[in-house]
Inverse folding.
């Protein structure tokens, strides 16, 4: 291993290794890729940095990966930060004034930017200037600094928390990342296994893909944990080993974890299947509201296990079936084994 790689924790090193380095290596999100390629090529031909871009969607679908890919494909430098890391206006000023012309700045979790910082970001995005107020009261004055031209790429799991003025300044496009289909997830697992030198058969890949929540990050995480299990138990990495390894992690055949099942169970057992408010579910499950809203719910909704209504969350018939509860309005259901 090279000197510079020695101190990098295993997981971080692997994540870097798995990150696609070219458009052709990035699997899925086809419509976003097509649109980005046009946006970037057109900007390149006009000899201008691309306009600002916003990605949103559930965690693990590749928002950060796309930002890195944009930088790589356009040969630009990328500076990485996040909403909560930019605490003061001065932090943002320092980042923006230190950019080189054409740089990309990536702000993750942009919904967590504070209002004062956001106000300074508007003119920076729109007109490439930084308005800084010096002093207080009647003697306060504004100075304006010209910034090097840059492209802001931002990401959020909570688009609804972004103010309309901020959203409207992403003139290059606002892109929603979709869950991947099973075939795409299988390709991603196959690619990762090859890069990491993991010997896994088609049945094993299939079994991980079924439970990976249509999410590449989860698929890669499961692949590594299944590799560990196979290694320790001296087994081939096939369908059966994957089944054992993921069952041990508490992941069931629909890819639900213990906390996903707990959310559904609470809605069904304590609140008659709903509708019930998010804050009530959070209190009853001891989970953070944000975790439920950003991580748990999108997948349960995608799987058709949960519905969001104006009066609250409702467990569907499918949720009752999956957890082997009898639906109050439905026919009796046979008990099924839950992992
Ligand atoms: N690893 C994580 N996300 C990926 C994707 N969309 N394509 C290829 N490899 C990935």
């Amino acid at each position: 291993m090279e000197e510079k790689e020695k101190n990098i924790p295993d997981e971080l090193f692997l994540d870097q290794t798995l990150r696609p380095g070219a458009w052709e290596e990035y699997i899925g999100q086809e419509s976003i890729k097509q649109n980005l390629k046009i946006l970037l090529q057109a900007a390149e031909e006009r000899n201008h940095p691309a306009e600002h871009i916003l990605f949103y969607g559930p965690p693990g679908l590749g928002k950060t990966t796309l930002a890195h890919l944009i930088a790589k494909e356009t040969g630009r430098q990328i500076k990485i930060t996040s909403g909560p890391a930019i605490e003061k206006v001065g932090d943002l000023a320092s980042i923006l004034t230190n950019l080189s012309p054409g740089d990309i700045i990536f702000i993750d979790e942009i919904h967590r930017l504070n209002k004062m910082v956001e106000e300074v970001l508007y003119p920076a995005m729109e007109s490439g200037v930084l308005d800084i107020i010096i002093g207080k009261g009647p003697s306060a004055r504004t100075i304006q600094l010209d910034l090097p031209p840059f492209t802001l790429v931002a990401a959020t799991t909570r688009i609804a928390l972004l103010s309309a003025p901020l959203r409207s300044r992403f003139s290059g496009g606002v892109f929603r990342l979709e869950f991947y289909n099973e075939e795409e997830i299988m390709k991603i697992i196959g690619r990762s296994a090859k890069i990491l030198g993991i010997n896994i058969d088609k049945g094993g890949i299939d079994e991980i893909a079924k439970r990976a929540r249509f999410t590449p990050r989860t698929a890669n995480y499961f692949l590594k944990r299944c590799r560990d299990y196979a290694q320790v138990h001296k087994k081939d990495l096939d369908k059966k080993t994957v089944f054992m390894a993921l069952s041990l992690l508490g992941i069931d055949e629909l890819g639900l974890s213990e906390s996903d099942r707990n959310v559904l169970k609470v809605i069904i057992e304590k609140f008659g299947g709903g509708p019930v408010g998010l804050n009530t579910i959070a209190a009853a499950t001891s989970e953070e509201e944000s975790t439920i809203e950003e991580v748990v719910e999108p997948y349960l909704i995608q799987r058709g296990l949960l519905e969001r209504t104006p009066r609250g969350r409702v467990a569907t018939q499918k949720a009752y079936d999956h957890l082997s509860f009898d639906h109050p309005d439905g026919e009796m259901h046979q008990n099924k084994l839950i992992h």
Q: What stands out?
A: The beta strands are 53-56, 78-82, 104-108, 129-134, 141-146, 151-156, 173-176, 306-309, 312-315. The chain has 14 helices and nine strands. The longest strand covers residues 129-134.
